[in-house]
């Protein structure tokens, strides 16, 4: 309501100034040019307060209507980041184990997503395939050395 009051005051002041200027301008060749300038001044006086109000209205409309959509989108993107990171680490572990002629049955990546969107990897649990149980320490040392992640290696042997 305060914005409407300010806008109407600006229009009244512009009309008053325009009327005073028109009264001071002598009739003659410059009269048309002065009327044009006064008209432009009045139009600007009408538009400028609107230009200040319109961005505030559009911002409030956007934040109110898009808030649930944005939070759902952020959750989806966060899940996709986590899945991509987990898949990438799994592929790295399998690749590194293949380099030392070992096979794994399962890789489980334990990680957290911070408030700023960064992913921190807490631990990687690797289960070696049958027949590789005696090489747990070798696999763990190699993976920790090459990948720089804390590893927990176990085997699938009963």
Q: Any chance you could write out the topology, listing elements then pairs?
A:
Layout: H1 2-24, H2 31-99, E1 104-113, E2 119-128, H3 136-147, E3 151-155
Parallel strand pairs: 2-3
Antiparallel strand pairs: 1-2
**Total beta strands:** 3
Shape field = rod-shaped
Largest sheet: 3 strands, mixed
Helix content: 55-70%
Structural class: alpha+beta
Written as H for each helix and E for each strand, in order along the chain, the element string is HHEEHE
Chain-averaged pLDDT: 80
Strand order in the largest sheet: 1-2-3
Portion in beta strands? 15-25%
Work out the helix count.
Answer: 3
Computed CA radius of gyration, to the nearest angstrom: 35 Å
Overview of the structural elements:
It contains three helices and three strands; from the N terminus they run ααββαβ. It has 158 residues and is of the alpha+beta class. A hairpin with a 5-residue loop joins strand 1 (104-113) and strand 2 (119-128). The termini are far apart. The mean pLDDT is 80.
